[in-house]
Here is the input.
Amino acid sequence: MAKILLVCPDRYWAGGWKPLLVSQRFLVDISMNLQESLELLKLSQYDLILLDVPGRDRLHWYQRLRHSASQIPIQIPILLLLPSSEADLSRVNLNSGLDHYAIKPACIQDLTVKTVAGQELLNHLRSRLKHRPPVLLPILRWGQLELDPNLGQVTYGGRPVVLRMKEYQMLELFLRNRQRIFSNQNLMSTLWSNDKEPT
Here is the structure.
């Protein structure tokens, strides 16, 4: 089960991306600002960064994320989303190090598996994940509790534990950051970001 960090400062578009990705069984964290994105990279292990940032900020955000991701032992690819008017990479003015780019659908209604644009984008995304060098992540353990990030499975005493997506994400966050104390605000911004607030 691949885990994606979606970086998108536009709440409207972020709200369109997530249902599409979740419907394809991707685990998704959403960040709407650069600082939060850099913090999430320190807290969780991602398989891919999906970067949807408009205009002048795009290059700056890309460079900062690439630098931060390069500090992590496991290389994280960045898939940059561009409007069709900027498909010519020379106009984007990115230096070497660009992982790959994909054309962003013209309207949010195209963010569905039922459209050609949605299917092409998902195929592009799966291709980037498929060509990433296979890396086995260590199993996270706490007593008899085990979380395998490679399979997206949790067991206790060898028996499977069924968790909802948010429960799984929260457990992984705690197991990866055992010495850190999270406030309610920390958890809200890290796990719920663009979701509805928990009840």
